[in-house]
Amino acid sequence: MTTPQDFPELESRIGREYPKLSRRLQQTARFMLDHPQEVAFATVAKLAEQANVTPSTLIRFANSFGFTGFSEMQQLFRERLMNELPNYAERIRAVRSATGETPDSTQLLWEFADANREVLEELPGRINPKDLEHALDLLEKAEAVHVMGARRSFVVASYLTYALHHIEKRAFLINGQGGMFREQIRSIGAGDALLLVSYSPYAQESQDAAAEAKERGIPLVVITDSSLSPLARLADVTLIVHEAEVKSFRGLTASLCLTQTLAISLGIRQDQGLEAGGTSSSLDA
């Protein structure tokens, strides 16, 4: 049995298989689809109480759809909420409503710090060294690097552009100012490279840029959150980053660490190519 990859797929599967479920699992299915916000954040114990079933029933329900545990299924409900509620204020209200809790600032600081520490510790093991070197090869050979990240990923793209300037690598940030995404993408030269940063739900502007780069044969490096990302299949090299998530708010710590690594590694390569006594590149601390 294949595991649903997103909420619409899970919702469709539940609808198709509902008649075959036991009475208790049908009861669980109705509760899950009727209260998606609560399911996204509440504990198994609290959800079981609200659904009037046992915690083991919730776990059995998740297993029946191919998930290894309830938390794996719950992640799809969280992703749905993040996609449908891009406004932070709305998310905060949804979390408070679902959990009945209002965490204080110190508690949030510890949660964000712990979550980001964990993804940073995992990052080196998630990045294939050959992919990292391949990405650096493409960036080093490029006459100029064009960097693009829409919405949340814009922070990462803008930092990388800044860092590339500080190692004296020609770089341009595709920011769509004045609605000119298309014109900026068309300005990418034949000897240039494009680096795209995009996370679920994958901005359409980024998908269009990747498709054009593929069509024109422009070297494309993609930083994204899944090998199933629509940009991954278009890229020359894909670097997968998993970010921390706390109460539906996703971080950027791992992505910034990776882009800093790319910039400094590229700077070291360039420095090694300079003749003795030449001008070194430097990056502000």
Automatic annotation (TrEMBL):
The alphabetized UniProt keywords are: DNA-binding, Transcription, Transcription regulation
Residue ranges constituting the SIS domain according to the UniProt record: 135-274
Q: Which CDD domains match?
A: SIS_RpiR
User: GO MF annotations for this entry?
Assistant: carbohydrate derivative binding; DNA binding; DNA-binding transcription factor activity
Listed under GO biological process in this entry are: carbohydrate derivative metabolic process
Domain (HTH rpiR-type) spans 8-84
Domain of life of the organism in this record? Answer: Bacteria
The record's listing under PANTHER family reads: GLUCOKINASE, TRANSCRIPTIONAL REGULATOR
**Name of the molecule in the record:** RpiR family transcriptional regulator
**Species assigned in the record:** Chromohalobacter marismortui
